[in-house]
Amino acid sequence: MEQTFIMIKPDGVHRNLISEIIGRFKCSGFHLKGLKVLNAERSIAEKHYEDLAGKRYFPALVGDITSGPVVVVAMVWEGDNVIVNCRKIIGASDPSKWEPGTVRADYAIEIGRNVIHGSDSIESARKEIALWFPEGLFGWKCNLY
User: Fold this and answer.
1) Over the stretch 58-82, which tens digit does the pLDDT of each residue have?
2) Among residues of the chain, what percentage have pLDDT more than 90?
3) Which of 35, 37, 62, 89 has its CA 20 to 30 A from that of 23?
């Protein structure tokens, strides 16, 4: 079973898009394993985006993610290429590549306000889940499927 990390960014929370975005994953058959609503501390945001620290937009990115509450969602599901498939639901980071029907095409305003973050690899998912859920995920298992 693979895990991935999904975060609804402050612009998505402010625009009350939480249920619509979570619904995209739920309708895809993914199993919700953890959910938090919190304000991101600057130190966690900087660690989360540390691979982008050298980019000119890093301060704005950290500023955006700490500007208000975020909904931190970690979901677990089984299958081949699950992270790739999740990224297809989210949509590309580049606005010129947003495909109709993706979360970003439907709800994002611009590259810096694209309402959602999703892990791009198994390694980043493990790192991000450990960062945002230091207490771990509970052992709940859905027996409905």
Assistant:
1) 999 999 999 998 888 766 665 667 8
2) 54
3) 62
| Residues sharing a CB contact under 8 Å with residue 32, sequence separation 6 or more, in sequence order | 22, 25, 26, 73, 75
Domain range list for the chain: 2-132
Virtual torsion, Cα 25, 104, 125, 128, nearest 10 deg? -110
Smallest Cα–Cα separation from 10: which of 37, 35, 46?
37
CATH superfamily of domain region 2-132: Nucleoside diphosphate kinase-like domain (3.30.70.141)
Candidates 14, 31, 48, 117; catalytic one: 117
> How far is it, in rounded angstroms, from Cα 119 to Cα 16?
22
Residue type, 136: G
